[in-house]
Amino acid sequence: FLHLQKKRRAATARRQHLKSAMLQLAVTEIEKEAAAKEVEKQNYLAEHCPPLSLPGSMQELQELCKKLHAKIESVDEERYDTEVKLQKTNKELEDLSQKLFDLRGKFKRPPLRRVRMSADAMLRALLGSKHKVCMDLRANLKQVKKEDTEKEKDLRDVGDWRKNIEEKSGMEGRKKMFEAGE
């Protein structure tokens, strides 16, 4: 028993050590990714945004402002177009995923409650105020009279089928059948 406890402790300690090692690796990977993103951002900004040089005269400043406004408008139009494309693509994705869900046939069935309803209440619920006929389900049933038909009498008279077979077996039975046929 003591031996098993030592093994369990060792296994637990090993699991804890592996878990902490995995967490250390994950933290270093996240830090590397963050640093790489920052470097990529700096490179992009250096490439697309040249350093700003402010001109000395008022007219040059106005021209720079006009250029910046034109640039802002074009970037804004691109952003709007991209957003519209993104929304359209997301809508298409939702539609396709819904079609896929429908094709698979995996519908989430809502929980149903058992409700006691008469036939009249069901018809009223389905047809609304149009339904005025009172429906008696037993009214349309066929009436059957208890009569002894010839088949039933024959079946009762025959009785046990084994006796019938025994009577017809052998030469005597064949003779009776032959005589009955004439």
TrEMBL record:
Stated role: Troponin I is the inhibitory subunit of troponin, the thin filament regulatory complex which confers calcium-sensitivity to striated muscle actomyosin ATPase activity.
Species the sequence originates in: Tachuris rubrigastra
Lineage top rank: taxon: Eukaryota
Listed InterPro entries: Troponin, Troponin_I, Troponin_sf
UniProt GO BP: cardiac muscle contraction; skeletal muscle contraction
GO molecular function, one term: actin binding
Name of the featured protein: Troponin I, fast skeletal muscle
Transit peptide among keywords: no
Oligomeric and partner information: Binds to actin and tropomyosin.
UniProt keyword terms in alphabetical order: Acetylation, Actin-binding, Coiled coil, Muscle protein
Coiled-coil regions, chain positions: 27-106
One GO CC annotation: troponin complex
A Pfam family assignment: Troponin
Family as reported in the entry's similarity comment: Belongs to the troponin I family.
Classification lineage: Eukaryota, Metazoa, Chordata, Craniata, Vertebrata
Leader peptide range in chain numbering: none
